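Researcher: We plan to redesign the surface later, but first we want a full-length starting point. Tokens attached.
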């Protein structure tokens, strides 16, 4: 029995015990928080790598609508086609790392006339757009918050369709490499835009 003359400050505190059932929830919450911090770190690294924008030149052409910014001066979209200048170059470099070090080593498969590929894929606007969309989906569906079926959903809903379009015989690489020993590269012409004031 404790001595009543002992001040309360000197009494030993009762040990705190977390119920075993709550430990799993605590561990998964901590893992999710760590993943979020890492993801935010990647975004901050990208943003800090971008140089300050040059001073606006009043004689220069106005920025295209695709480069409009949202609140806080950030791009209105994270999609690569909505970016321009240094932001586009930074995002393309990050995409290239993902394509070269993850996508191609795992899902590249052999190049053939029925499954073409181009080493200069970054010069094909359609390829850049499809690969970037695929990469954004990969980031979302491989995150811990996507759940255990996230990667399967990414394969089924994103990867399979994107690769079928990119590597189709009539896809963006149709005029490019069919033999790794003899690389070729040609960006196919797209339909010309209709004249706004042209004759009917």
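Model: Full-length starting sequence:
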């Amino acid at each position: 029995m404790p001595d009543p003359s002992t001040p309360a400050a000197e009494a030993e505190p009762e040990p705190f015990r977390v119920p075993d059932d709550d430990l799993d929830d605590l561990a998964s919450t901590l893992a999710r928080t760590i993943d979020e911090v890492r993801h935010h770190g990647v975004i901050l690294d990208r943003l800090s790598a971008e140089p300050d924008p040059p001073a606006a030149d009043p004689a220069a052409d106005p920025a295209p609508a695709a480069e409009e910014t949202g609140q806080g001066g950030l791009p209105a979209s994270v999609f690569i086609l909505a970016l321009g200048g240094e932001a586009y170059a930074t995002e393309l470099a990050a995409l290239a790392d993902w394509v070269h070090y993850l996508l191609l080593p795992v899902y590249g498969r052999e190049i053939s006339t029925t499954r073409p590929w181009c080493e200069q894929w970054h010069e094909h606007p359609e390829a850049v757009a499809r690969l970037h969309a695929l990469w954004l989906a990969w980031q979302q569906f491989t995150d811990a918050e996507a759940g255990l079926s996230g990667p399967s959903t990414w394969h089924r809903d994103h990867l399979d369709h994107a690769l079928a379009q990119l590597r189709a015989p009539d896809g963006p690489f149709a005029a490019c490499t069919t033999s790794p020993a003899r690389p070729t590269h040609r960006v196919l012409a797209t339909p010309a835009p209709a004249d706004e004031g042209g004759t009917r």
